[in-house]
Amino acid sequence: xxxxxxxxxxxxxxxxxxxxxxxxxxxxxxxxxxxxxxxxxxxxxxxxxxxxxxxxxxxxxxxxxxxxxxxxxxxxxxxxxxxxxxxxxxxxxxxxxxxxxxxxxxxxxxxxxxxxxxxxxxxxxxxxxxxxxxxxxxxxxxxxxxxxxxxxxxxxxxxxxxxxxxxxxxxxxxxxxxxxxxxxxxxxxxxxxxxxxxxxxxxxxxxxxxxxxxxxxxxxxxxxxxxxxxxxxxxxxxxxxxxxxxxxxxxxxxxxxxxxxxxxxxxxxxxxxxxxxxxxxxxxxxxxxxxxxxxxxxxxxxxxxxxxxxxxxxxxxxxxxxxxxxxxxxxxxxxxxxxxxxxxxxxxxxxxxxxxxxxxxxxxxxxxxxxxxxxxxxxxxxxxxxxxxxxxxxxxxxxxxxxxxxxxxxxxxxxxxxxxxxxxxxxxxxxxxxxxxxxxxxxxxxxxxx
Length: 450
Prior knowledge:
Elements: E1 16-17, E2 29-30, E3 50-56, H1 67-78, E4 82-86, H2 92-102, E5 106-111, E6 123-128, E7 138-143, E8 147-153, E9 159-166, H3 171-187, E10 196-200, E11 210-211, H4 218-231, E12 233-235, H5 236-240, E13 249-250, E14 259-260, E15 263-268, E16 275-281, E17 291-296, H6 319-344, H7 354-375, H8 379-395, H9 402-438, H10 444-449
GO biological process, one term: base-excision repair
Organism: Mycena pura
GO molecular function: DNA-(apurinic or apyrimidinic site) endonuclease activity; double-stranded DNA 3'-5' DNA exonuclease activity; metal ion binding; phosphoric diester hydrolase activity
């Protein structure tokens, strides 16, 4: 805290303007009356693009460490608007419990396995209430526990239809699954064809998407190709990266360590130009799948800015930055003392006063923080970035044999998974500490969570 004499934040009295009808004791300002705050309707403003993801959560986890807490953390950190979640093992009772915990943050729509909802299969859509409209949402079940349509509003108010799928693993069941979905759409011609299809498809179209490379069941490939053609869909990630090797499912080293890109998102061909940021990434959840994501906008979507810059948490305790701010603060304190004395004597300068000095100080402080943030990178973030780069280089090295790639990537993928889980746990611990300190006190944090 800066110590010094009290500072008069306003200039000496000048001609004052009071608006008609104002309270006689209301605060008045020199010059023109301040503009009124614009009235807001209370309707949530959506972003100019929607981030859609797909993740196999591999069951709901242990009772003492529910995976839905981690699902919400990932969606919040990644600003994911809609997440297609497979292998949820969700039933009505458990879904009620999840809703009671996250009703202000997420809207969940699901379809359980009809025979063993808590033991196998299960498909869900999780919608982030902070980034997408969740009022005008409807779902249509095609195959219980395996395929469901989500209908919602896009950023421009148009209808957006997303088909979530969790295909069976056995080849003959997988092929029948795609044929059944096509037959359903043929029988329901009044239903809009999906803009997006995503989830765990449990097969690949191209041998390039497996390590070691090998073609999948021809029956599955052909059946899906017929569905894909009928719906007018295309593999957005593969279209963006035609020759890149990358995988979303990693088998355990004890089982051979093979990898595949079975988690995918497909998009309508005429919408591909409106999509961007086709990515796949490891998450800190206990699963052997990576999350695949993309962003979808529209031609009429509003243009938005970059948002308000926020200090990265890792520079708050940076000693070098703290020293710079401390020295600038001492200089500011001396200047404010001089300004205060001049204002007492009636010498107020509109271009050089307490307000302008404070504005200059905060601007320089943020500029220094931005520069420092580019230099000081958290060790775990740096390790994650380096590991990802190594994996990408090895997977796409044409001079290496598939056996060498597999052996190298198994180790690196395991390392990346552990790093992501550590980063995820650290973030979660920080949130838990804050909740412990502020969760029972009436403040901004409390009102935001309640």
